[in-house]
Specification:
Elements: E1 4-6, H1 9-21, E2 25-30, E3 37-45, E4 58-61, H2 69-72, E5 78-85, E6 88-102, E7 105-111, E8 116-118, E9 126-127, E10 136-141, E11 149-159, E12 162-167, E13 183-190, E14 195-207, E15 217-222
Antiparallel strand pairs: 1-8, 2-3, 2-5, 3-4, 4-7, 5-6, 6-7, 6-8, 9-11, 10-11, 10-13, 11-12, 12-15, 13-14, 14-15
């Protein structure tokens, strides 16, 4: 059952961009198949030469696995995509347009979602990509020291008590340098047209047990300079 419907075009595009940049796994369901197939969104194109009149944009997904899905999807006018952003399940229904043979994106063209439905798993209500629309955070550990290191983390949601960020597998060494309750100085949060520098408190560190980011960690940061702008 859907918890929230996202219909704002710019928010939908940002979610799709996140799926592409993070190489998230996407479950693909076609009408003629009982089981779902697996793919990834590899591109979004608002000026594709195959766009029909009235079609605003397309997304391109990779070939499906298992392989038999590649023939089934071509005879299915409606396709349902399901994916997770952190631990929040999302789904959307799109139209199949055709195959994409424009390098480097070989796969299937689908219409850009007009609505994304979000299911809720957390007790605390969360909203994806609401204002202030931070998409990236940079944390510097050991600033000014010989072993200074910078970490770029995706900002994936905004809750009443702070921002949630993804620690991917390649940055797991960060967990040896921070713990719940630590104050992290000078975190840089990047929006589309602004950079905000704040201090934040680590409120929780949660291991991801399933999905594309299984084995990675999710970190919650609270900052008095950000919370007034976050809407639950």
């Amino acid at each position: 059952m859907a918890y929230k419907r996202i219909e704002d075009r710019q928010k939908i595009i940002r979610i799709i961009d996140h799926l592409i940049s993070a190489k998230c796994s996407v479950s693909v369901t076609v009408k003629s198949a009982a089981a779902a197939f697996t793919s990834m969104v590899v591109n979004a194109d608002q000026n594709h030469p195959s766009l029909a009149k009235g079609t605003r944009a397309v997304i391109i997904i990779d070939k499906l696995a298992p392989e038999r899905g590649n023939s089934l999807i071509q005879s299915s006018p409606k396709v349902t995509l399901r994916f997770d952003v952190t631990d929040q399940p999302c789904s959307c229904t799109v139209n199949y347009i055709g195959t994409s043979s424009m390098p480097p994106h070989f796969g299937f063209m689908l219409t850009m979602p007009e609505v994304i439905e979000l299911g809720e798993k957390r007790v605390e209500s969360r909203v994806l990509f609401d204002p202030p629309d931070f998409l990236l955070a940079e944390i510097c550990i050991g600033k000014g020291e010989k072993d200074e290191k910078h970490y770029e983390l995706s900002v994936v949601d905004c809750a009443a008590h702070g921002l949630g960020m993804l620690i991917p597998m390649k940055h797991l060494d960060l967990l040896k340098k921070i713990k719940v309750g630590d104050v992290i100085k000078d975190i840089r949060f990047y929006a589309s047209n602004a950079v905000l520098r704040v201090d934040g408190i680590v409120r929780h560190i949660t291991k991801i047990g399933e999905g594309k980011f299984k084995g990675g960690y999710y970190i919650g940061i609270e900052s008095k300079d950000i919370i007034p702008s976050c809407k639950a």
